[in-house]
Amino acid sequence: MLMTHAMMYRNRQYLLFLFIMACVLTNRSLWAAADNDYWQLPIPSQGDAPQTHHPVTHDISPKSCALCHKKQADEWRDSYHAKAASDGLIGQLHYFDQDSAESCLSCHTPRSEQIEDWQDQSLKFKATGIDCASCHLRQHQRYGAKSKTTSVHGTVQAKPLFKKADFCSPCHQFSEGRGLKLAGSFLENTHQEWQQSQWSAQNKTCQSCHMPKGSHRFKGIHDAEMTRSAFHIEAIRKAKGFSLLLKNQFAGHALPTYATPRIIVTLTSSDGKKVKTHIIQRQLFLDKQQSLQQKSDTRLQAGETITLFLPLKPQQQAVAKIRVEPDHFYKQVIYPYFLEDDEEARDEEDKQARQRLLKAKQVNRDYTLYDIQCPSWQQKDQHCTLTPQPLKGDSMTLLNDNSS
Ligand code: HEC
Ligand code: HEC
Ligand code: HEC
Ligand code: HEC
Ligand code: HEC
Questions:
Q1: Sorting pLDDT into bands at 50, 70 and 90, what band is 404?
Q2: Are 320 and 309 in contact (CB under 8 A)?
Q3: Which atom of ligand 3 has the smallest separation from the CA of 96?
Q4: Does residue 17 have its Cβ closer than 6 Å to ligand 2?
Q5: What is the pTM (predicted TM-score) of this model?
Q6: What's the mean per-residue pLDDT of the chain?
Q7: How far apart are the first and last CA of the chain?
Q8: 2.60.40, 2.40.50, 1.10.287, 1.10.3470: CATH of 225-326+366-398
Q9: 154: Cβ below 6 Å to ligand 2?
Q10: Which of the listed residues 142, 157, 216 should we mutate to test ligand 1's pocket, taking the one with most ligand atoms within 8 A of CB?
Q11: Residues ≥6 apart with Cβ < 8 Å to 4
Q12: Are 270 and 277 in contact (CB under 8 A)?
């Protein structure tokens, strides 16, 4: 079945590889992360639980961990890690051959047991995404930031890696031989961007901002408040017009770090005659050979500032809108690409895949970051009004981090 599809969609498959992938793994047991072999993807099978562990803990699904670790489980369930076996992912797998599909799964559902569920056609795919065991268990041994002795699942071993940015890079950073480079930088480059920022020098790790107080929500660009916390904004009515300064002050990497999200800034005079639009995105396109190229990169690197200016007459007022479309590239390019093809005869699996992709395309997670109102000129520079009011502080203080 998969073979037929692979042949039928050979072109598509190739194209998509260039797109997303960038991620395909040629060697399946690769990537020992920088300073240890904790991260082998996919994660080798855990094997049998030791008899010294309480029977309840033999089940390593998130549901089971939740029995005793409710706080982390409730937070994690809200996170995109829990949703990593998304319709957008699973819908695409149908069009790939088995090896390629498994390479996608090795980051999105990284445990071997999860991937075996996927291979077993008779089993319903248990879509638990990047779950507790993916990050905390190896051979049923629990690991964490601190060591602990428990009466239920033995000792928890401390690993310094849990406090380091390196913990996150196996999935959030491509490296030589693993992943596409465009215009000199990897398509997924979050760890390098972080390393080049002031944050690494201050020892503010991924966890400092994304796991404040040990939170397992892993908030990012899909969360309006988190994204607001990244920006420093100065919106000022000056004699000659409306000046809007945007600074990536508190994201520990490019804002946004991935090529998927798009942020659109529109400045408009109140009579509607003057409009200025600025897009913040790593914009990609397909060239004539259908290979992926970078059109432009207007993301704000860590610490970077841009200023937009809309010339106005003294009596003119103006408004601005900052919109965030976190899933832009997938929804505008990837999903339509699969869905456009309508003539093929279709079996049940094909229909299901299309259903999933259609769902992924229709989900709307766009939001307005700020609406800004600027007055007419009143003989001195004046701050414009931001709605909602920006919070004071950064992603760490806002979320009461105490993790460093
Ligand atoms: C039957 C209850 C139970 C289940 C189920 C359970 N745990 Fe635990 N776990 C505990 C107890 C009790 C401790 C010790 C807590 C303490 O001392 O604060 C603990 C400690 C931990 C710690 C260290 C916590 C710390 O504060 O340092 C980690 C990490 C952990 N468990 C992970 C897991 C994961 C992952 C799962 C699911 C695969 C799981 N546990 C399932 C009871 C359980
Ligand atoms: C096993 C692979 C893996 C590891 C390890 C991992 N992530 Fe992720 N992460 C992913 C995947 C895949 C997604 C995309 C999930 C989706 O939306 O389908 C993601 C998404 C995210 C998001 C995006 C949320 C949003 O709003 O879009 C954040 C933030 C994040 N991860 C932070 C971290 C941090 C911090 C760490 C380290 C503590 C980490 N991740 C470790 C695979 C991983
Ligand atoms: C090296 C790990 C890795 C591999 C391999 C990988 N991804 Fe991802 N994927 C990620 C991360 C990390 C994100 C989130 C990136 C971010 O927000 O910065 C992501 C995001 C996505 C998203 C958008 C969020 C969602 O789930 O709707 C889709 C769709 C996706 N990947 C599909 C795929 C497909 C299809 C493949 C295989 C062709 C693949 N990925 C291979 C790490 C990986
Ligand atoms: C993407 C990786 C990731 C996932 C998924 C994840 N954790 Fe964690 N967890 C961590 C990291 C990293 C820390 C240490 C955070 C810190 O101290 O800054 C941690 C800390 C903890 C702690 C506190 C003890 C400690 O070691 O600091 C517990 C308990 C825990 N996790 C349980 C869970 C449970 C239960 C789940 C699933 C519902 C889960 N985790 C999912 C990465 C993860
Ligand atoms: C100083 C705080 C800070 C640090 C350090 C930090 N982040 Fe972020 N991160 C943010 C904020 C704020 C956002 C939301 C705005 C945005 O998307 O850039 C974000 C967004 C994200 C996203 C959402 C996807 C996207 O395109 O932006 C991912 C994935 C992510 N971070 C991963 C990481 C990883 C991995 C690290 C460590 C290498 C890290 N972050 C370090 C603050 C931080």
A1: very low
A2: no
A3: 38
A4: no
A5: 0.94
A6: 88
A7: 51
A8: 2.60.40
A9: no
A10: 142
A11: none
A12: no
